[in-house]
Amino acid sequence: MLYSEAMKIGVIGASGYAGGELLRLLLGHPEFVPTYISAGSNAGEEITAVHQHLTSYAGQKFEKTEISRMNECDLLFVALPHGESAKLVSQINPAVKIVDLGADYRLNSAESWSRYYGGAHAGTWVYGLPEMPGQRSKISTSTRVANPGCYATAIALASAPAIAQNLIDSTDIVVVASSGTTGAGRSAKVNLLGSEVMNSLTSYKFGGVHQHTPEIEETLSSLGKGEAKISFTPILAPMPRGILATVTAKLAAGVTYEKVRDAYLNHYAQEPCVILLPEGQLPKTSSVLGSNAVHLQVAVDSHTNRLIVSSAIDNLGKGAASQAIQNANILCGLPELSSLSTVGTPS
User: Fold this and answer.
1) Burial letters for 133-162: b for 16+ Cβ neighbours within 10 Å, e otherwise?
2) Each residue of 143-156: pLDDT tens digit?
3) Cβ neighbours around 71 below 10 Å, total
4) Does residue 150 carry a catalytic annotation?
5) Residue 295 in 3-state DSSP?
6) What contacts 100, CB < 8 A, 6 or more positions away?
7) Which region holds residue 243: left if phi is over 0, alpha if psi is between -120 and 50, else beta?
8) Which residue, 16, 8, 23, is CA-closest to 58?
């Protein structure tokens, strides 16, 4: 459906890092106007007291989380902790479009939800990764979209061309990925204090237990080339935002570097947000900050006959807020990159 006038937008959970990035990006949107900005425990506080950089919202306060106010909106961005969106959705008017930045509706498997998140599985919405084959058309005809996880975005887009072209053994994909501290949310945690994080790297949730594991496997298995299995080790990096993922997999017989590079170039030739860097350049997180871009580079390790793919995204951008707006643009029939940029703002 194409809207001809400004849409009333709600941002639920706007005091978090992803919520703040949504508010920043919405300032430049030609059709989306934030009319309801809520933040549970921060209700009544000035928006600029939490997000000091958002001076355009000076004088505005976070509202309470109320279903009646949500139902006054045309579109909602829900940026709540996992398990919270499902508590609200049944009360929201079906006519209200929703992009959920949480995990509640990402997984197809109820068993995987129970194992990795716990509790009852809320259901499955259209998965909002437009660059995956067939997803853009599904998003455009939906009203409810599950925004992908940040790690899942970086890893799935790094792996998809190789699986789609049968270049690798998709049952043995190994991933090591580092994320900035904003990926853990805004709630105070001792292990995220500056004194704890600075000058240090640490793995966490390794050994197959990270919650994005089934999401990535389901996404890659949907390519129809057989079951995808990943071994995923996440790392907490001493920086606020950004993800750098290294994906490796055993190459199929006879696959050369030239074939790999051509496969990636062709796969993403029509995707402005996914950029295969020139040979010799490697992705870095500073290059994608504030953008909706994914930077990729590929290599072939001839010693072990493995594909190596490096992927960089902004975990608050393509990994959360900007991808949510990209999805909203698609489901509302608007230009896909309205208010978004593929150019980063390196510090």
Assistant:
1) eebbebbbebebbbbbbbbbbbbbbbbbbb
2) 999 999 999 999 99
3) 15
4) yes
5) strand
6) 78, 85, 89, 125, 144, 145, 146, 147
7) beta
8) 23
Burial class (CB in 10 A: 0-12, 13-18, 19+), 188: exposed
What is the four-CA torsion angle of 329, 335, 338, 340, rounded to 10 degrees?
A: 90
Longest CA span, the chain: 63
Handedness of CA 19, 51, 335, 346 (dihedral sign): negative
C-alpha–C-alpha distance, residues 49 and 61, integer Å = 9
Phi-psi region of 233 (alpha: psi -120 to 50; beta: other; left: phi over 0): beta
Q: Which of 228, 140, 247, 237 is nearest to 182 (CA)?
A: 237
Q: Return the domain boundaries, the chain.
A: 7-147+318-331, 151-315
Q: Among 3.40.830.10, 3.40.50.720, 3.40.640.10, 2.60.40.1180, name the CATH number for the domain at 7-147+318-331.
A: 3.40.50.720
Cα–Cα distances in angstroms (integers) from residue 191 to residues 81, 198, 242, in the given order: 19, 11, 18
Element (H, E) at 126: strand 126-127
Dihedral in degrees, nearest 10, Cα atoms 159, 160, 163, 167:
-70
What pLDDT score was predicted for residue 347? 65
Q: Does domain 151-315 have CATH number 3.30.360.10?
A: yes
> Per-residue pLDDT averaged across 335-343, rounded?
97
Q: What is the pLDDT of residues 93-148, one digit of tens each?
A: 999 999 999 999 999 999 999 999 999 999 999 999 999 999 999 999 999 999 99
* Contact predicate 294/132, CB 8 Å: no
Catalytic residue from among 73, 150, 273, 332:
150
CA–CA separation, 330 vs 326, rounded Å? 6
* Residue 295: strand pairing partners: 275, 312
